[in-house]
Design goal:
This protein is of the alpha+beta class and 345 residues long. It is built from 12 helices and 10 strands. The protein starts with 14 loop residues before the first strand and ends in a 7-residue tail after the last helix.
Length: 345
């Protein structure tokens, strides 16, 4: 079972998942954007040897050059790797554990991107998980490190702890009422930023956003995590308050919109990824507010379905390459088969 298929974590009504990412570089090599092909392969082998010796049965190793474009993008859609990593011009590799909650990108923007993920609000636990792997690697190699600055990274914004903590949140009420724009303007003052579903430069869809720290220098890991959690919980509380307000003041309109979205999902023969994400966002909200009750809804994982309907994962599911129209047809069919029926008909 993958991490995103497991039971909901804390605050599941708004917080979909937590992520910790540590940026690290090897002292004996220049940053990846200046690595030769031979040096890039050497850096990969250094890390591969560590995992082969220390964790031989717990991690999978992937040479990205041996993978198809669809396989790479499918992993990106599952948040195992970044969009940048998919298109790196130098040799790179991915190492991850069985449930994909922990992954290590070798030769992304930095030599190492150690990433841990979990459902719900769970930054403390996954920081511990990422730190254990970080310590295991640092016990075998020398990192690029400065006593004054901390960990040295290719991008100056990551210098210091090299830590990026983030929550993936679902905030349809704040987005629908326009209050999200006000929040976006305010949180920048606290060194917090909003991004799309796949991080930097990606587009938000289905009212799903990543909220993460911008600053890594001058703060401890614990301070960064605490600040992000505090700001995010304020957003969570505002989202819940707006949902309650809409439920009191516009219940019929609200309920009608949710059932219309369910109706399209349950009957459509063609669905684009963006449309499906928007409609699934409505259904997710309806389930959380108790406006919509589905048979076996406790076993229905909307976030899992949101991942399955993305273009590359959809083609992996169908076991064949599909053009745009075929993908839209296959997506609609998958949603119809997966979506539980409404309780009582």
């Amino acid at each position: 079972m993958k991490w995103y298929e497991k039971k909901q974590g804390a605050h599941p009504d708004v917080i979909i998942s937590s992520r910790i990412r540590l940026a690290r570089n090897l002292k004996d090599y220049v940053f990846p954007n200046h690595l030769s092909e031979e040096e890039a392969r050497e850096a990969i082998e250094v890390i591969h040897r560590i995992f082969s010796k220390e964790k031989p049965d717990e991690f999978y190793y992937w040479d990205m050059a041996q993978m198809s474009s669809i396989d790479k993008v499918a992993m990106m859609e599952r948040h195992l790797l970044s969009p940048l990593f998919v298109n790196m011009p130098i040799p790179n590799a991915l190492i991850h554990n069985v449930d994909e909650s922990l992954s290590i990108m070798v030769n992304e923007e930095d030599h190492l991107r150690i990433q841990a993920m979990s459902k719900g609000a769970n930054l403390g636990e996954i920081f511990t998980l990422a730190s254990q792997v970080d310590d295991m690697i640092e016990d075998k190699v020398d990192y690029a490190y400065s006593q004054e600055l901390g960990y040295l990274t290719a991008c100056p914004t990551n210098v210091g702890t090299g830590l990026r903590a983030s929550y993936m949140i679902h905030v349809p009420a704040l987005e629908a009422t326009g209050q999200l724009r006000i929040i976006l303007e305010a949180i920048g003052k606290f060194g917090i930023t909003f991004r799309g579903i796949y991080g930097e430069s990606s587009e938000p869809v289905g009212s799903v956003f990543q909220v993460s720290n911008q600053v890594t220098l001058g703060f401890s890991e614990e301070e960064i995590i605490e600040k992000l959690h505090s700001v995010t919980m304020q957003i969570v509380n505002q989202e819940i308050a707006v949902r309650d307000s809409l439920l009191r003041e516009r219940r019929l309109e609200f309920e009608d919109s949710i059932y219309r979205s369910y109706g399209i999902l349950s009957q459509a023969r063609i669905l684009t990824a963006k449309e499906a994400m928007t409609l699934l966002s409505d259904v997710k909200l309806g389930l959380e507010l108790g406006l919509l009750k589905l048979e076996t809804s406790g076993e229905f994982n909307i976030f899992d379905l949101m991942t399955q309907i993305q273009p590359a994962n959809l083609q992996k599911y169908e076991k064949k390459t599909l053009d745009v129209t075929q993908r839209d047809m296959a997506r609609a069919n998958l949603v119809r088969m997966t979506l539980p029926k409404i309780q009582g008909g």
